[in-house]
Design brief:
The protein is of the alpha+beta class. It is 50% helix and 14% strand. A hairpin with a 3-residue loop joins strand 18 and strand 19 (351-352).
Length: 724
């Protein structure tokens, strides 16, 4: 198949947009050229270009078809609409039976012609997050000025331009010319294929593969660091970004002045990454090293000495700014910063950060005894947890919230457990960050996340679809990880119920403030925007008991996220659903234990056969219950006629007498083992017993016996949800 190659060469594309742009190019080209069956699509992206290579059919074959139109007696308007739809005229129609018929035919079209027709509209609708116009009056936009278009099919140029009516499209037309490195190999040169383009660009100091640029950067920086006995601090996001900034990466090492080495390592790393895109280095003991790595986009004649000196000079200025904040912040105790949090709005309906801190301190003290933490320490840590938000350093580098709080707490003489909890209460913020492990940190981290969920659920701000502006899914996953990784046994509903009372008080206070502000500014009070202190009751699933509806909704949200998380780990979604549906539970580790036990049962031979028998029983009951069911209540032993009925009833009674006790004791594996004992008597029952006996009383009794089996198994899991 012929090779299609397309390169779009422009001014520098923001690094964060490049990969997505390559994906969009692949998607749009695949849709526009679908008649040519594009295959083996490859994309490339870099600072000044996105490109695509694909195999396509050489031509689109001609075709004929017959389209049936409206009835011959249909109104003229219907016939006119049919003709417009197919781009035909009346002379092309014929009558066949009672209908107008159109014989359609299309001539064969070469791939080059189809590509030339498809590319201009594709480029005009390209979905850049931000785009710009440049020069003249053309309406054509691109992320940065588009300079060249290479479009080749089987080594030949596919000719098209971006004119559209009176719009000249900046005079851009396709050709075979591209450009190399802006400084090392300036000027245009022709290419004839993707391979030729890649090889010639390499000779002109451009690496077109993003993965290769990343590999070169990572390997060469690591080698430079190793020469000094150092390692590179892991920062995959920075590596991705830098690979999108340079076409010909030349890693270099600079030195950090000794006078700045007393700055916190996190401050140094964030300042280097955010301001200059530098890589932090570490010593063998994991401490900050007096060197930094960066990537130049040129090979300098002096080996990079002038470039290194310039970057060292810039970094000294950046670190001087950081030192200013570091020294200034430590003059004010964290405790003294807390009143300033009243001036920061957490959410219009949930009050200020100061009000939230009061809630967190109260909730952390309640959680603390349940996770082995001291109440006073947990309360103190929660009280100080948000104070660094009003520090100069966090104002400059928001990524350091919590981190700086720990340093300032230690400087103030707070206990180490309190300082660590201030740092850790945001964790885990992603899959690469560990969950808090010390008791005080656990208490404050759980309080922070549970308050977040409870608050936003109380005001009706729940995630919908892919939208999650308040990162509630991340908070739920953080709760799951903290509880799971630390083996905690917590009933979440009472904690959430406790959390919701002060939240509703703060909602009412925020509402009153909003009404007062509205009254002062417009003279018209706002209508109610929150439910105030009213608690909406909700029924606990599978129970007659009620609880706070928002608390139940949060528990449901957390268990939903747990199912998603476990599926990502490879667990069967149907087993999870079956275990979760059997019995409502707000203890995450108990839910997990039951799920693992059900999975273990289904992984055994007895379990597989028992599931088959369960399905057979459930199917029979579903059909018969529609006729004259439900068939509930205990079976009558006096109605048993054959030994297999007695055997199944005896086995069922034995299991039923122990399974509730085992479930209560959380011996889920034992419950599964006991339930597996039903396999043989149930198989024998179906082999020897006619369930739908002609005698109504025998049929009813046997259905009740099967209903007892189903009900007993459903205490452990809803086996009807198991697939396969």
């Amino acid at each position: 198949m012929p090779e299609l190659f397309l390169e779009l060469f422009s001014e520098e594309i923001p690094a964060r947009m490049q990969a997505r742009a390559a994906e969009d190019l692949s998607r749009l080209a695949g849709e526009a050229l679908a008649p040519l069956n594009p295959a083996a699509i490859r994309t490339f992206h870099g600072p000044r270009r996105i490109a695509l290579a694909a195999e396509v059919a050489p031509r689109l074959s001609g075709s004929t078809s017959v389209e049936r139109g409206p009835r011959a007696s249909a109104p003229e308007q219907a016939l006119a609409g049919f003709l417009r739809k197919h781009g035909a005229n009346r002379d092309q129609l014929r009558v066949e039976g009672e209908y107008w018929v159109l014989d359609k035919s299309s001539a064969a079209i070469g791939a080059a012609e189809l590509i030339a027709d498809a590319m201009p509209p594709l480029l005009r609708r390209f979905p850049w997050p931000k785009s710009m116009r440049w020069g003249g009056s053309s309406a054509f936009t691109w992320v940065r000025p588009l300079r060249r278009i290479v479009c080749l099919l089987d080594h030949e140029v596919v000719r098209f331009d971006l004119r559209d009516g009176d719009d000249d499209g900046h005079g851009l037309a396709s050709g075979d010319l591209t450009e190399g490195h802006r400084f090392l190999s300036p000027g245009a040169f022709p290419v004839i294929s993707c391979a030729d383009w890649r090889d010639k660009l390499r000779a002109h100091h451009v690496l077109v593969e993003a993965a290769e640029r990343k590999r070169v950067i990572a390997e060469r920086i690591a080698a430079l660091a190793a020469e000094k006995g150092l390692t590179v601090a892991d920062d995959p996001g920075l590596l991705d970004e830098v690979a999108g900034l340079v076409e010909w990466p030349v890693p270099l090492l600079g030195r950090i002045d000794a006078g700045h080495m007393d700055l916190p390592a996190e401050v140094m790393q964030v300042s280097m990454r955010v301001n200059q895109r530098y890589f932090a280095l570490r010593t063998a003991t994991g401490e900050a090293a007096p060197f930094f790595a960066f990537v130049a986009n040129v090979e300098a004649e002096d080996g990079g000495a002038a470039i290194i000196a310039g970057n060292e000079r810039v970094l000294r200025a950046r670190f001087a700014d950081a030192r200013h904040f570091w020294d200034l912040d430590r003059r004010t105790r964290l405790e003294a910063r807390i009143p300033l949090l009243d001036q920061i709005t957490f959410h219009a309906k949930l009050g200020s950060q100061g009000e939230r801190v009061v809630r967190l301190a109260r909730l952390a003290a309640i959680i603390a005894p349940q996770v082995g933490a001291g109440e006073a320490l947990a309360e103190r840590a929660a009280h100080l947890a948000k104070a660094d938000l009003v520090s100069g350093m966090v104002g400059e580098f928001p990524e350091l919230q919590g981190v700086m709080g720990r340093y300032y707490a230690l400087h103030d003489g707070e206990p180490p457990e309190v300082a660590d909890a201030i740092r850790d209460h945001y964790a885990p913020r992603g899959p690469s960050e560990g969950a808090p492990a010390s008791p005080v940190s656990i208490a404050v981290a759980l309080a922070d996340k549970l308050d977040l969920l409870a608050g936003f659920f109380a005001i009706g701000e729940k995630p919908t679809g892919s939208g999650d502006p308040y990162a509630l899914r991340r908070a739920a996953l953080g709760i799951i990880r903290i509880i799971r990784e630390n083996g905690l046994r917590l009933s979440l509903l009472p904690i959430l119920t406790t959390a919701l009372d002060p939240i509703r008080s703060d909602i009412e206070a925020a509402l009153r403030r909003a009404q007062q502000d509205a009254a002062r500014s417009a003279g018209v009070p706002l209508g109610p925007t929150a439910r105030g202190n009213l608690t909406t009751p909700g029924r606990i699933p599978g129970s007659t008991e009620t609880a706070d509806a928002d608390g139940l909704a949060v528990i449901g949200f957390i268990t939903d996220r747990m199912q998603v998380h476990l599926r990502a780990e490879g667990a069967r979604h149907d087993v999870l659903a079956a275990a979760f549906a059997a019995r409502w539970d707000d203890d995450i580790n108990r839910l997990l234990a039951r799920t693992e036990a059900v999975a273990g049962l289904l992984g055994s031979e007895n379990g597989k056969n028992l599931l088959t028998a369960y399905r057979r029983a459930a199917n029979i009951l579903r059909i018969e219950d529609r006729k004259d069911g439900p068939h509930e209540g205990p079976a009558d032993p006096a109605e048993y006629r054959i030994p297999e009925e007695h055997d199944l009833a005896l086995a069922l009674g034995h299991v039923a007498s122990h399974i509730d006790e085992m479930l209560q004791a959380e011996d889920f594996s034992g419950a599964m083992t006991a339930m597996a004992a039903l396999r043989h008597p149930l198989d024998a029952f179906f082999d020897k017993v006619t369930v739908n006996a002609p005698e109504p009383h025998l049929r009813r009794n046997r259905l009740r016996l099967l209903a007892g089996v189903r009900a007993m198994m459903d205490r452990v899991a809803d086996f009807s949800l198991i697939e396969g």
